[in-house]
From TrEMBL:
Compartments (UniProt record): Nucleus
Record keywords: Iron, Metal-binding, Methyltransferase, Nucleus, Transferase
Cofactor(s) required, per the database record: Fe(2+)
Keyword Metal-binding: yes
Family assignment from sequence similarity: Belongs to the JHDM2 histone demethylase family.
Example of a GO MF term: methyltransferase activity
Domain JmjC residue range list: 1-60
Originating gene: Hr
Entry protein name: Lysine-specific demethylase
Gene Ontology terms: cellular component: chromatin; histone deacetylase complex
Domain characteristics, as noted in the entry: The JmjC domain and the C6-type zinc-finger are required for the demethylation activity. Leu-Xaa-Xaa-Leu-Leu (LXXLL) motifs are known to mediate the association with nuclear receptors.
EC number: 1.14.11.65
């Protein structure tokens, strides 16, 4: 992705008790190295609502 689109990725090791917050609209990928129970909570702040709407409009071409 870096060469094609100028996008750099991040890699991290999440340990028990750690939380990872992914910004709205940010693509992400997860790989579990061991048996895992995952809990996901989608959260939309009022400040992000307009940005999310605009991202959806851009993706739909409207």
């Amino acid at each position: 992705l870096r060469e094609e689109c100028g996008v750099s990725g991040w890699s991290l090791l999440q340990l028990p008790g750690d939380a990872v917050l992914v910004p709205a609209g940010a693509p992400h990928q997860v790989q579990s190295l061991t048996g895992t129970i995952s809990v996901e909570q989608r959260f939309l702040s009022p400040e992000s609502a307009v940005r999310l709407r605009d991202l959806g409009s851009d993706a739909a071409g409207t």
